[in-house]
Amino acid sequence: MMDLATAIPALRRAMTPAAEAQAMARFARDPSLNRQMQAFARAVERAPDLNAALRDPRVLGVLLPALGLPEGVNQAGLAARALVADPKDPQGLLARLPDRRWKSVAETLNLAERGLEGLRDPKLHATLADGLRRMAWRQELDQRHPGIADAMAFQERAGTVRGPYDVLGDPVLRRVVTGALGLPPQLALQSVEAQARTLNGRFDVAKLQDPRQAARMAERYLLAAGASASPWGGGAAVLPGFPAGGLLA
Q: What average pLDDT does this structure show over 47-64?
């Protein structure tokens, strides 16, 4: 049963290093996650080439969720092209994709230079195992407090925001900011330029580089998400010092 009164304390506890360490140790013993990683390792070891590896669901089913792009699992064709593209090319595929997470993942993997051996790197396997455990933990938390996984990821990435396009180019940042500010889903029907103007008119997103501002935005989103998921519904909650219009003091 959801309890909005405990949502923010739960988020604050989850953001502590001790809470994450405890959860990661617990999920390290999860047999299903360990089987996923074993299947991934076998698949990349047996793959005849990089293209075959990137089209294998056992590979994508670990690689993309663990690196923060779970929606990409069902986009095998795009993944096969995007993950080997040059992230430094200003005219390349990664520069044209509206979801900037593809570029981030491509930079992390560096497959354009490392090729298939990059997927076989034990250091990468350790990173992916941690990513799967972290995702499983956040999904568990989300069952009790809808939106907490997004709120946690948002606080981790908010420091990279320099302007509205950084928010619009990341689905998680976009969900949290528009949800916290009470902006309607129809905003997505406007041009990107119009959406950026709307965001600028409601909140200076560059302030999200301040961890305190990012935390307040995440907490407001969490309350709004919980209220929307409750049987009674409801709009965005208002935090003390955080007006309903969305402008931080």
A: 96
Query: Which of 136, 171, 205 is the last residue before a domain boundary?
Result: 136
pLDDT of residue 3: 66
CA-nearest of 183, 227, 224 to 205 is 183
Q: By the 8 A CB rule, do 144 and 83 touch?
A: no
Closest CA to 27 of 143, 125, 122, 138: 138
**Whole-prediction pTM:** 0.85
pLDDT for residue 227: 86
User: How many structural domains are present in the chain?
Assistant: 2
How far is Cα of residue 46 from the mean position of the Cα atoms in its chain? 30
Would residue 232 count as lying in a domain? Answer: yes
Query: What is the token pair recorded at 39?
Result: 């299947």
